[in-house]
Amino acid sequence: MMVIMVRTNPRRAWQVAEAKAKLSELLEDAVTAPQMIERRGTPVAVVMDIESYRAVTLAQRAASDQARMSRFLDRCAALRARGGVTLRVGRRASRPSPFEREA
Questions:
Q1: How far is CA 13 from the centre of its chain?
Q2: Residues 27, 47: contact at Cβ < 8 Å?
Q3: Which of 13, 44, 77, 99 has the fewest CB atoms in 10 Å of its CB?
Q4: Distance between CA 33 and CA 10 in Å, rounded?
Q5: CA-based torsion, 3, 1, 61, 13: positive or negative
Q6: Percent of the chain topping pLDDT 70
Q7: Which residues sit opposite 43 in a β-bridge?
């Protein structure tokens, strides 16, 4: 999955101390574009607006669901290629129905 985000308001990366000191400004800038936070020059976090976060999360979930379905279909095809399988299910034991009323 590839997510492309265009920065309309380029901003240098925030250092942790600066991000703490200017949290309100950081949050305001995050509405316009994702903001990267660095510790000692190494990126450690990204702050983004909630709509972008939800879109990314939804896209990841959809990609995960597609991947799971693809694996399932691939395994089904492999079983069919080997001639299929026989599923043996034992007899079910009788048991009282929870929906029947006692007389």
A1: 25
A2: yes
A3: 99
A4: 8
A5: negative
A6: 87
A7: 38
The helix/strand/coil state of 38 is strand
Specify the pTM: 0.55
> What does the pLDDT read at residue 15?
95
Q: Tokens 């399988």 correspond to what residue? A: 85
CA atoms within 13 A on the CB side of 36: 14
Q: How many other C-beta atoms can be found within 10 angstroms of the C-beta atom of residue 34?
A: 16
CA 48/CA 22 separation, integer angstroms: 15
Tokens linked to 96: 């009282």
CA dihedral 43, 48, 52, 53 (to 10 degrees): 70
6 and 32 Cβ atoms separated by less than 8 Å: no
| Burial class of 14 by CB neighbour count within 10 A (0 to 12, 13 to 18, 19+) | buried
85 vs 50, residue with greater confidence? 50
Ordered structural domains, the chain, with CATH: 14-81 (3.40.1620.10)
